[in-house]
Design goal:
single chain, alpha+beta, Jelly Rolls, four-stranded antiparallel sheet, 6 helices, 15 strands, binds nickel (II) ion
Length: 274
């Protein structure tokens, strides 16, 4: 593997926690945001790591890089490329202000001890002008139907996240419902991204934030990001925090046909055959 050693993150520590009003707002709305989760210094350290993982569609492990909005084996430029578990290639990502603050805040939001939370990350990039939308979905719709989750996602942009570049957009209160019926974008299970139809988005809230700010959302909160119509890249690093999910009782396991179709397509990717 290509050699690149960014070393440890900068030493400067920033501690951020939510106040009670922010936690209450999260419980009501299913999302919240903060202006800063890290330092400028750490953002500068992070950018070359981020770019390294996306350059040459490198990713972390075989198959960890793919376009969320196009078939797995599509050629050419990607619309919404994603890299899974960057911390597997760069474990020092777990030592950052971002990780530490996101864990502490997720612990506040879930009302669970920080040490009990498992963390995994993913990075999503929207290229200038061609960066595609990610339509309405719930993150839990991507996960195992036979497990019950308690989870929060933290999303931090490295570039200005605006309505033009693809900022997070949430539907307040949607986290209290069930996981809705989803389907793969374009009804094509070889496209990883999911969408749920018939969402009344009239009450949606767009959350523009500066680099180094962060949003937090519940795993059932309906959210979307618009396309990147701006002239600059929109890079974001997301981290999920969850307790070990527990098995759903046999008779209560929901039917999620999109997961069955998606698993087959995932296992059939050419990256595994080459
Ligand atoms: Ni999502």
């Amino acid at each position: 593997m290509t050699d690149f050693d960014p070393g440890p993150p900068p030493a400067a520590v920033l501690d951020v926690r939510l106040d009670d009003a922010q936690v209450d707002a999260f419980r009501r709305n299913g999302f919240t945001s903060i202006e800063r989760i890290t330092t400028d210094e750490e953002l500068e350290w992070l950018a070359p790591i981020y770019d390294f993982l996306f350059d040459d569609k490198r990713g972390t492990w075989k198959g960890s890089y793919f376009d969320l909005a196009r078939p797995y084996d599509a050629d050419g430029d990607d619309f919404v490329p994603q890299v899974l578990t960057p911390e597997m290639r760069f474990p020092q990502l777990l030592e950052t202000n971002v990780s530490r603050n996101a864990r502490a805040i997720s612990s506040q939001l879930l009302d669970l001890p920080a040490a009990e939370l498992k963390q995994w990350g993913h990075m999503i990039l929207k290229p200038p002008r061609v960066g595609g939308e990610l339509p309405w979905h719930q993150d839990e719709a991507y996960w195992e139907e036979h497990l019950a989750y308690r989870a929060v996602g933290c999303w931090m942009p490295l570039d200005p996240a605006t309505a033009e570049s693809g900022c997070m957009t949430f539907l307040p209160g949607s986290h209290t419902g069930e996981v809705r019926v989803h389907r793969h974008i374009g009804d094509d299970p070889t496209v990883h991204g999911l969408v749920t139809d018939d969402v009344d988005g009239s009450a949606e809230v767009a959350v523009p934030i500066a680099p180094g700010g962060a949003t937090f959302h519940h795993c059932r909160t309906l959210h979307r990001t618009p396309p990147n119509t701006s002239g600059r890249v929109r890079r974001a690093w997301a981290n999920e925090f969850q307790v070990t999910p527990v098995p759903v009782p046999e008779g209560d396991i929901p039917d999620r046909p999109w997961l069955r179709a998606g698993r087959e397509a995932w296992d059939d990717r050419s990256v595994y055959r080459s």
